Amino acid sequence: MRAVIQRVSEASCAVAGKITGAIGQGFLVLLGIEEADGIEDIQWLAQKIANLRVFGDENGLMNKSIHDVGGEVLLISQFTLFAQTKKGNRPSFIRAAKADRAVLLYEAMITVLATHLGKEVATGIFGADMKITLVNDGPVTIIMDTKDKDNH
Fold first, then answer.
1. Phi, psi of 121 (to 5 degrees)
2. Secondary structure letter of residue 119 according to DSSP
3. Which of 17, 25, 48, 104 has the smallest number of CB atoms closer than 10 Å to its CB?
4. Is 79 a catalytic residue?
5. How far apart are CA 93 and CA 97, in angstroms?
6. Residues 47, 80, 84, 133: which is the catalytic one?
7. Is 93 a known active-site residue?
């Protein structure tokens, strides 16, 4: 499971011109799911996102978590995070989980992350053509991969 976590002042997702999820200060999380992922990946990643200290404290240092600032999360499924570009110019997405498995894990991530945050998680619509709007804050962008836990 791979996540691109962007600290934002605001973010929203629209499908067919209708807003499906919108947040103020918090994280826009782009989530890629691969076939080998399971509940342990969800648990680990949700806990890391909920406790990630990248919001400024009174001294301007990144010492506060999303809990500390009352922030929100917009979670967007994005299979393209597992694009392989080694051969040719057209990316391969063979590592990305098939839709039937990925949607179950995406929905589980919504539930587990909401539990860690103690509040609802805003979302897009799995598999839809989504238009994401965001205002990066910083910018601060963190990439996490559950298969690379030792690096985090």
1. -105, 130
2. S
3. 17
4. yes
5. 9
6. 80
7. no
